[in-house]
Write a structure and sequence with these properties.
The protein is about 35% helix and about 15% strand. The protein is of the alpha/beta class. α2 (about 30-35) packs across α7.
């Protein structure tokens, strides 16, 4: 992947519970800010492969969904919790769908994810890092219950499907809770990640968000808490912070952490 001096970023955007086109529609303000800063930006919105039930979606109300009918709703994700447990049923399919998008539409400079898609964006960033496969292999050799490195992220010759991401942006993200998924987080994720947490988020609360932050290197100053709930904030202060972070990521700025902290502290609250 090329640097900022040769082209603007290519981004993969990973939502949750909706088609990629619907996530696209709900993040128009973010897209507009990115395209204004980087006119040749390309954004790609894959569809989640797992059909969800109402019970899979925290806070879902059937009466609020005119397209829903009983247990049949138009909602899609990247995995489902198996029988209410922390086991991610179908995660291999979710990862394979992202890998397919990388192969056919990438390579990408960064990933943007929301909610379950935010958790997945962090996983994808980890999988593309140098020597991550070796870490998975070592962990699996000592514990056969751990998830192996996904074959979908390798070419037939064993090479990883693209170079490491330059950055990721995670809104209301979280870490997989079981040791089964340790390979994603041990060693810590090195890819620079900007974390957005909603102070009123009741779906992914601060504790769950902090669990992901804890497994990312140098993430203490890459955290922005917005005064809202479980959504991608669209007010100018948050969009400006995102654009600033992307610029640092593309240029490989070594002082990105400090600048991010300063810009967050200087923001005027949108309400």
């Amino acid at each position: 992947m090329n640097s900022l001096t040769t082209r603007d970023p290519g981004l993969i955007n990973i939502g949750y519970t909706q088609y990629g086109s619907q996530f696209h529609a709900k993040t128009r303000a973010l897209e507009k800010a990115l395209v204004k800063a980087f006119p040749s930006t390309t954004l790609h919105y894959p569809n989640g492969p797992i059909s969800l039930r109402p019970s899979d979606i925290p806070g879902y109300s059937l009466s609020a969904d005119p397209n829903g009918s009983g247990d049949e709703i138009e909602a899609f994700g990247w995995w489902r919790r198996k029988d209410g447990t922390p086991i991610y049923d179908g995660i291999e399919k979710g990862l394979a769908r992202v890998a397919e998008t990388i192969k056919t539409e990438g390579p990408f400079d960064g990933a943007i994810g929301f909610s379950q898609g935010g958790a997945l964006a962090a996983m994808v960033a980890a999988l593309l890092e140098n020597d991550r496969k070796r870490s998975f292999d070592v962990l699996c050799a000592t514990d056969g219950e751990k998830i192996p490195y996904p074959t979908s992220f390798q070419h037939a010759n064993g090479d990883i499907i693209q170079p490491p991401l330059k950055f990721a942006i995670v809104y209301s993200g979280f870490a997989a809770p079981l040791e089964k998924y340790e390979g994603f987080y041990n060693p810590k994720i090195k890819t620079p990640i900007l974390h957005f947490l909603g102070s009123l988020d009741t779906v992914v609360d601060e504790k769950r968000g902090n669990q992901l932050i804890a497994v990312c290197e140098s993430s203490e100053k890459r955290i922005i808490i917005h005064p809202g709930g479980h959504f991608v904030p669209s007010q100018k202060p948050w969009l400006d912070a995102t654009v600033s972070f992307v610029k640092d990521g593309l240029s490989g700025a070594s002082k990105g952490d400090k600048r991010m902290e300063q810009s967050a502290e200087a923001m005027d609250m949108p309400f």
